[in-house]
Amino acid sequence: MDDFFTTSVLVATAAAAIRLATPYLLAALGETIGQRSGVLNLGVDGVMLLSAFFAYWTVLSTGNLWLAALVALLVGLIMGVIYAVITVFFEATQGISGIGIFIFGLGFSDLMFRQQVGTPKPVPRLPSVNIPFLADLPYVGEPLFQRSLMTYLAFGLVPLTVVLLNKTTFGLNVRAVGENPQAADSLGVSVERTRFAAIMIGNAFAGLAGAALVLQLGIFQPNLTQGMGFIAVALVYFGAWRPWGVMGGALLYGVVNATVLQWKALGIIPVSISDLAGMAPAILTIGALVLLARRVHAPAALTKPFSRH
Amino acid sequence: MPLLAAAVAFAFGAIMLVALGANPFEGLQALFDGAFGSGDRLAATAVRATPLILVGAGITIAFRTSVINIGGESQIIAGALLSTVTALSFPGLTPYLLVPMVLMAGFIGGGIAGAIPGALKAYASVNEILSTIMLNLIMVQFMNYLLRGPLIDPYELEAGTRIPQTQRLSDNASLPTLVDGTRLHLGVPIAVAAAVAAYFLLWRTPVGFRLRAVGHSPKAARAAGINVQRNITLALGLSGAFAGLAGAILVFGSQGQRMVTDGSAAGFTASAGFNGIVAALFGGLHPLWTVPSAFLFGALLTGATQLQRVLQVPSSLAVALNGIIVIFVISSSRVRVRLKKLLENSSLINKPDQEETTEAT
Amino acid sequence: MKTKMRFTARLFAVLGAFALLATACGGDDDTPEAGGALTVAIVAPSASDDLAFTQSMVDAVNALDREITLSITDGTFIVEEAAAAIRGYAEDGINVVIAHGTQFGASLAEIAPDFPDTTFIWGTATDTQGLDNVFAYHPAADQGGYVNGVMAAAISTTGVIGVVGPVEAGDAVAYINGFIEGAEAGGATVNVTYTGSFGDVALAAEAAEAHITNNADVLTGTAQMVVGAVGVASSNDIPWFGTQANQTSLAPNLVVASQVYHWEVVLEEMLALRDSGTKGGQAFELNMANGGLVIEFNDGYSLSADVKAAGEAAIAEKSAG
Question: Cβ distance A146 to A130 under 8 Å?
């Protein structure tokens, strides 16, 4: 245990936690915006897989990481349009349509990968970008300021999302539409257009999350996300639909995962209980929520399709 | 309209097949042939549909109480594990006792796995989407731990191959085959019976009435003296129990009579925890209609293997096609409503009073 | 509600009609091939080009020295689906059906007796379940693990080696235990992390990072998620030892050697037995002595002569049995 509490190990664990948290955070932030407008999207994992594949394919073909991120964003937007049409226009039941998107994303990304790539080939990974001065700070320098641009983007989007939701007209519309669409509608807010926009933004974020994941790893495999999108959805609930809370959840998840891995490497967690230790992130997430036991308020219109009376 | 949706979805599938250099008509034929082509295949379809029926019926109970259960995977696994332990503990018992016991164990195991998120929601305000997703992760690790550890086949340890599976479980627990030469086993009628039971529970018993009342309006239910918290826990518990029963049937209806893991949930459950939700929704969230819709979905899944084999296309094509079908069908049931509204809005006809459909998802 | 009932009923009716139609024009069975040429089918749990388990079997069949018509059903890790595929191939009259996945054994117990003329080949497994038309195979993965371990210890300057494993089971644990034995014989400390999943690439990558934080300067691992760990090794200029398949393409300058499964060695024996009338009933082990396990060195990595010598000594030791 002493081995763990050395500076270098603790710092490295913190860095790992932030790296691990990045895709979760991006996806969860997007889902937060969507859910605040009253729409549940269980298909995040599918969107992440699709955008991850296309980002990977782009880098494989062009070597350009920026282009890959752009492609991922585009894929997210396209899926957002599709989901918005299904949800807002067709008013399909949200839980199930989300799962349909997930199943489709899983299968299609797998299919495209097999057909277009086949054997996994590594691609250049996201480089770390050191922020001058800050990167040299003791202790916090490495974990916080020597990360990739994607990570900075993810964490930077947290305050931006707060501003978006709370300080802009659009954000006001989103919240209104999520709480009481009838009232919003009678006040002249277009429920459909607001939700459409929220869904598109949310899915665009999910697209970026997919890019973050695949470019961080430098390789794609079928079902790369292994359920990450679902966990991101869970984190929205954990964060009580507030961006800072969601960030807290993503970090908690990242920290626990990173710590468990570090303890396994150090032998603090013996191999014999390795799988039990693997439960830790999930158990701790639930545990934290139980302990925090606050009365959280979900957007009242969450999952309810809107029809004008 | 839903037929049109299914047709459009298949059209997409046909396009994908053509893009892969395969003949879509052969594909369609392979799909049907694989699902219905022979008595044996029909039986396989029924067997494949069984967990879907059970999970789906359980889902309808949860949804009618306005709770979402996406923890089917964990509940199936929990039921399977408890039933396996039961069979390992009482191998010598007569089948007349052991079979019901393992099924009951499955029911209980899944029930516990469902009641935990239920209680967490009811008494600690932990949203069930979060807790069920987390429990899915927890259960997989637990399964891996048990199957490579305490429950591992002693032969594996001896031989050093350490394959994470149990020993061959007692034949006394195996579900009897109903039609010789096919794989149709007792699990199939049990699943159908369970779906019927779910229907009776929801609409013909006070328990079901209370569940539905809570689903309709927790405030009104509370005002009427119904213990909302207990009913929410019960709803998720029952939903989980049905899934757990599916887990037991997966183990004891299988050809291998043992539980083996490949490290993931889907390797054991075939994603029945998610596909069951689809089946339930296709059946309009009504337990009885879940049966044919699960059967159809099962046919799709079974036929897809034949598709893959005959056309040499990757299995992921079938997965992608499933997703497309789900999306189209679930959208289509509303297309007619939507089109009608569009027409009404545009021609300014007197709109009939429309209920806001507060469908629980 | 009624709408949905009507819809389901109608859908059912139409599909049912289609089904009857399709059954009426069902496909015909192929007749089995005669002579030395064989029809072979592989049913495998992961993709046939996964640089790991499944690919090794596909490569092996393609390397066989006879005329083979090969069909593959891959990605079927779900036992029911695999069982349907296996049975389907047997019904089509395929001569040899390879069920490349331990979890398929249970299904074979039911299917094999129905098709006494078909040879079923099953792995990884050590016994044939008493069936006389089933051959079983398994790799003695610990042998290659040992050799890799010896070399890893020789290469390492910090004396710390990191291992990234999936779940402590199957040929993964055999490889890793062999590796530990070899590395510790060479005086190194081995840290092992089992991530708990066969497919979680992100977790494998972070597990590798954790090892590097602890001064590991050589890494190894097993299972398909290992590509994540190789990526991390690659970014940190850390040598990598592979298993199951030749992993050089993942890090052309850093992969030192890979234990490659050459299933064709045992497949040849099995097919020869089949030619002479024995359709199954024997279990085979892939090991260094029979050439089933081969340590393939990567020329792209500059390996010092003494490390190579140590490796070859270890190979010789294991080949002697």
Answer: yes
Residue in chain B lying closest to A282 (CA)? B134
How far is the C-alpha of A272 from the C-alpha of B154, rounded, in Å? Answer: 17
Query: pLDDT value at position B325?
Result: 84
Residues with pLDDT less than 50, chain B: 348-361
Looking at residue A205, its pLDDT comes to 97
Smallest CA–CA separation between A115 and chain B, in Å?
8
Residue A18 in tokens? 């932030």
Bridge partners of C129?
Answer: none
Q: What is the mean pLDDT of residues C165-193?
A: 92
Q: Is A115 on the interface with B (CB under 8 A)?
A: yes
CA–CA min distance C166, chain A (Å): 10
The pLDDT value recorded for residue B342 is: 63
Start-end of H helices in chain A: 7-36, 44-62, 65-84, 94-116, 141-145, 149-167, 169-179, 181-186, 191-217, 228-238, 243-266, 274-278, 280-292
CA distance A139 to C48: 46
Q: Are residues A108 and B323, on separate chains, in Cβ contact within 8 Å? A: yes
Tell me the CB-side half-sphere exposure of residue C83, using CA atoms within 13 A.
25
Contacts of B310 in chain C (CB under 8 A): 27
Structure tokens at A207: 């697209």
Q: How many Cβ atoms sit within 10 Å of the Cβ of residue B176? A: 10
CB A224 within 8 A of CB A123: no
Give kind and range of the element (H or E) at residue B202: helix B187-204
State how far the Cα of B316 lies from the Cα of A111, in Å rounded to an integer: 5
Residues of B in Cβ contact (< 8 Å) with C9: 292
Distance CA C317, CA C59 (A): 27
Would you say B107 and B183 are in contact if contact means Cβ atoms under 8 Å apart? no
Q: Check residue B212 and give its pLDDT.
A: 92
Looking up tokens 């997007």, which residue turns up? A30
Give the pLDDT confidence score for residue B149 in this predicted structure. 86
Q: Work out the mean pLDDT of chain A and round it to a whole number.
A: 90
- Residue B157 has a pLDDT of 79
Quick check: B286 and C102 CB within 8 A? no
Q: Which of A48, A151, A217 to mutate to test the interface with C (most CBs of C within 10 A)?
A: A217
Question: How confident is the model at residue B341, as a pLDDT?
Answer: 63
Q: What is the pLDDT of residues A200-257, one digit of tens each?
A: 999 999 999 999 999 999 999 888 999 899 999 999 989 989 999 999 999 999 999 9
Average pLDDT over every residue of C277-304: 90
Side chain identity at residue C235, one-letter code = S
Tell me the CB-side half-sphere exposure of residue B304, using CA atoms within 13 A. Answer: 26
**Cα B154 from chain centre:** 32
Q: What ipTM was reported for this prediction? A: 0.89
- Determine contact: A161 vs chain B, CB below 8 A: no
Question: Neighbours of A (≥3 Cβ pairs closer than 8 A)?
Answer: B, C
Instruction: Look up residue B120 and give its DSSP letter.
Output: H
Question: What's the confidence (pLDDT) of residue C225?
Answer: 86
Give A307's pLDDT tier (boundaries 50, 70, 90).
low
Contacts of B290 in chain A (CB under 8 A): none
Q: Please tell me which residue of chain B has the smallest CA distance to C196.
A: B141
pLDDT digits (tens, 9 = 90+) for A274-294: 888 989 999 999 988 888 766
Report how far residue C117's alpha carbon sits from residue C132's, in angstroms, rounded to the nearest whole number: 10
C199/B263 CB distance under 8 A: yes
Residue C285 parent element (H or E) = strand C283-286
Residue A185 makes CB contacts below 8 A (sequence gap 6+) with A191, A306, A308
More confident of the two residues B330 and A307: B330
